[in-house]
Amino acid sequence: MLSSEKKIFTICGPYPVIRRSLRKKGWVERKLSIKSDLQDNKDDDRGKRNVFCEEVSGFDDSDDIHDIMSRLVKNEDTSFFWTIKKDAINYHNLHCDQMLNHYAKTSSFTTKIGLCLNLRNLPWYVPANPNTFFPRCYGICMDDEKHDFIEDFRNTAACSILRWVISRNACDKKSQKVKGKVNKEDVGEKKESNEKEVKQLPGKLIDMACQVCETCLGQMEHEDIDTSVDVSAVLSEEEWEELIEQYYCLIHEGAVIYNAHNYITQCQKILSKIISANPQRDIEGNHNIWIVKPGAKSRGREIVCKKRLDDILKLVEATDQFPVKDHKWVVQKYIETPLLIYDTKFDIRQWFLVTDWNPLTIWFYKESYLRFSTQRFSLDNLDSSIHLCNNSIQKHYKNAADRNPLLPWHNMWTSTKFQEYLQKRGRGNMWRNVIYPSMKKAITYTMRMAQESVEARKSSFELYGADFILGEDFKPWLIEINTSPTMFPSTPVTAELCAQVQEDTIKVVIEKKRDKNWDTGKFELLWRQPLLDLPPFNVSDLSVEGVGIKRSRQKAAPITNFNFLETLEGIQQQTTQCASLNDEKQGESIGTINDKQSMKMKTEKAIFGTLPKPLKRPPKKSCKVRDVCKKSTGHIDFPSLIFHPMQSIPEMKHVQQCDQNGTQWSGCGIQLKYGLVNDCSLFFKGLQTSNKKIPCLVCGDTFQLEKTCKRCSSFCATVLQGRLGDLSCST
């Protein structure tokens, strides 16, 4: 029996530890079909066979108590979802109290391209420089990003030339081994036989490199704020090509520079300034190696290392198979001076948990693990087996025969084992004082940067896996952040730690909510932000919408010589008996347009007269209409005049009508649109010019005959009032 609170969970993916942990706490699983579960994991090769076997065995064992309970709750709503993919569950259809192990819109930090472009905005959220913990990165498939990368590659090559000069001098004096292919003999001491074998480069190469570095230094120190200085413009394209080719010969082919010792003082002075201004000076090296990654893939797929500019640009070119919109590559500066353990490269997988985005709440896991490569480290060979430490990559290689036997055969250490290693070498405090707090700081900065872009759904949470690489100074550098980190027990280390972190996650997201004093395992609260009042809109999504109003280019021609009298005299008169003028028929013939009843007019018994277009408004005259208090007269329509035909006109009769609004019309038997015409001859005799001022029907102002209204420029009022001599209108 379930308690009053529903404890029903659903799992999609290879998470037997989560299933077992929830069952121990009295939860009942609402299982999904095998087909849908495998569909969610068709792109994930991690533990696919295990998922299949687990699900099949669960459904085949019909006597299992958990299967029976699952059938009982198949029509109930799930209270807790744990899926390997975000799109396995449509979170928009979930209730506010249904828990889900994913957040929406996290691509700003869970994809390589998102982290590359968004971490640059960190100073807007935190007073920190992202270049102090994240190697510089470019979205090389964008034109402006591509230009910046080429400029960075050239500047790095110029700085590498200066470093070579200094390291060459130190090598000669102290007889120390220098990394890379550098000849240890000085050019001045070479024999004639060696001069023919080693390629010598002119000292002009150092002059060009110094010129580029000085300009680059000015940009680092913000001396170019008021000027538009382009580093690429310091040298012409031909000079750049010459510098890069000679740089390749110097670093990668073992060439030397003639009389390099004469430039030592100049190079040391420039490099000392660059070191103080460049926060990534310790990871540069001399080989100018860059790592090229797909913008949205994981587990090390299609990641390669390159050290030549042409090779990088050719790799990321858009093709018919990979168009620009799907061809999102990221190029990041490779850490050429990583911390090595027994001459082998490694990285660190660090977990952290986000349980809320407003207020931002981050939990940091105290335990992590190291992943080693299978080959010894070397910058001369850029193979993935040497430089990529992902287990999904290294599992395809065998451990090198010359590798140190003290390294584990499964290529993983726990962080506890790593601390023991540091302690034996007298560096035990480096983990506690440098590595661990620096990783915390990098995670906190990144999450605060991404806070606005993530959809902060309540009752959701998510476990992330961050990858770090340590420099020679033990400083951690953030490489990427993964959503749904693998929990597959591929080695004894992951079998222990992955199970432990899943159980501790359940403690934090379920038990901690019920009891604040509940044990959270090895999770510690890293950051809890005060509650923020977020704006009701996303600042980055502001837009202006509307429809432009275009003025008509065609201007109405003014009407100057229009004689309305001639128009009316041209109407043919028909001789028919005029209808009787009793009060009942008068009431039926007079009605307002506001009535929704349509008035049927017989065209064969009616004669229509249309009015001309209004006159053009005189230029430079105000068109303001003065408010006039007047009695409402209803809606008056002026477009046509209707005359009822008659056979004879025995005498003139004075007709007075009144509409529903009380407006009286008086005249010589003439009625506009709805009225009657008793005497047409008298009507035409009344159409004469007069200087009498008549009130305007539109705005109420007075005006002279044969002129438009001064206030509203109404031509209709001019015709109907100015030309109808004996008609009068009272409002």
Summarize the structure.
By secondary structure, the protein is an alpha+beta fold. Residues 34-62, 176-182, 184-196, 572-582, 584-609, 620-633, 635-690 and 716-731 have low confidence and may be disordered.
Write a structural description:
With 731 residues, this protein is of the alpha+beta class. Helix content is 31%, strand content 14%. The chain is built from 21 helices and 24 strands. Strands 11, 12, 13, 14, 15, 16 and 17 form a seven-stranded antiparallel β-sheet that branches. Strand 15 (462-470) and strand 16 (476-483) form a beta hairpin. Helix 1 (16-24) runs parallel beside helix 17 (492-514) and helix 7 (143-174) packs across helix 10 (237-252). The chain is flat and about 85 Å long. Mean pLDDT is 76; it is low at 34-62, 176-182, 184-196, 572-582, 584-609, 620-633, 635-690 and 716-731.
Largest sheet descriptor: 7 strands, antiparallel
Please bin the fraction of helical residues: 25-40%
Share of residues in strands? 5-15%
Structural category is alpha+beta
Uncertain stretches: 34-62, 176-182, 184-196, 572-582, 584-609, 620-633, 635-690, 716-731
In oligomeric terms, what are we looking at? single chain
Number of helices: 21
Tally of strands: 24
